[in-house]
């Protein structure tokens, strides 16, 4: 099996969707191997999204992602990265397929409910960013 990393973003936490999103994740066959409710500082969010530092939306993204609690989780499944991106749907909820997490719970392109890693390598980096070894099962 392989792993991916996800965050339930501040909009979805604030809107009361943690339980429903975790249910969709487990019902889709992902095993939760790390899980916590936490909040990113501005500098945490800057570091996590450093790859987007030159993008025009970087400042708003950092502000949003540090604006309230998130749920961080590491997930295990065969083909985890690609299957999770299918489950969450397109970055822009207006383009997300029916039944995807973003179609159901995202409010806009920037407040799009969930994050999903884009590669196995980034999944490992992102999981290590959030979790100590003793928090991975
Ligand atoms: P994520 O990395 O959160 O899973 P993604 O891989 O679908 O999302 P990226 O292109 O990596 O999308 O962008 C990271 C995040 O930055 C998006 O999830 C979204 O919240 C925000 N974002 C991306 N493009 C824009 C944009 N044009 N305007 C505002 N916010 C954006």
TrEMBL record:
One GO BP annotation of this record: CTP biosynthetic process
Names of required cofactors: Mg(2+)
Annotated InterPro entries: NDK-like_dom, NDK-like_dom_sf, Nucleoside_diP_kinase
Catalysed reaction, written as an equation: a ribonucleoside 5'-diphosphate + ATP = a ribonucleoside 5'-triphosphate + ADP; a 2'-deoxyribonucleoside 5'-diphosphate + ATP = a 2'-deoxyribonucleoside 5'-triphosphate + ADP
Listed EC numbers: 2.7.4.6
Active site: 115 (pros-phosphohistidine intermediate)
GO molecular function: ATP binding; metal ion binding; nucleoside diphosphate kinase activity
Keyword Nuclease set for record: no
Domain Nucleoside diphosphate kinase-like: residue ranges: 1-136
Keywords annotated in UniProt: ATP-binding, Cytoplasm, Kinase, Magnesium, Metal-binding, Nucleotide metabolism, Nucleotide-binding, Phosphoprotein, Transferase
PROSITE patterns reported for this sequence: NDPK_LIKE
Binding site for ATP: 9, 57, 85, 91, 102, 112
GO cellular component terms listed in the entry, alphabetical order: cytoplasm
Record-linked CDD domains: NDPk_I
Localization of this protein: Cytoplasm
Main location, first listed in the record: cytoplasm
Stated role: Major role in the synthesis of nucleoside triphosphates other than ATP. The ATP gamma phosphate is transferred to the NDP beta phosphate via a ping-pong mechanism, using a phosphorylated active-site intermediate.
The family this protein is said to belong to: Belongs to the NDK family.
HAMAP family, sorted: NDP_kinase (MF_00451)
Subunit structure: Homotetramer.
Name by which UniProt lists this protein: Nucleoside diphosphate kinase
The species this protein was found in: Flavobacterium seoulense
Gene transcribed to yield this protein: ndk
């Amino acid at each position: 099996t392989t792993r991916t990393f996800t965050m339930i973003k501040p909009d979805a936490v604030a809107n009361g969707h943690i339980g429903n999103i975790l249910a969709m994740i487990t019902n889709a066959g992902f095993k939760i191997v790390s899980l916590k409710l936490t909040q990113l500082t501005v500098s945490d969010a800057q570091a996590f999204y450093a790859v987007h530092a030159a993008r025009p939306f970087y400042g708003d993204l950092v502000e949003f992602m540090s604006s309230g609690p998130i749920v961080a989780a590491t997930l295990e499944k065969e083909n985890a990265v690609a299957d999770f991106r299918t489950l969450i749907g397109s970055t822009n909820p207006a383009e997300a397929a029916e039944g995807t997490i973003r179609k159901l719970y995202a409010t806009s392109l920037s407040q799009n409910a969930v994050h999903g890693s884009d590669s196995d390598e980034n999944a490992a980096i992102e999981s290590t960013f959030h979790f100590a070894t003793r928090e991975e099962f």
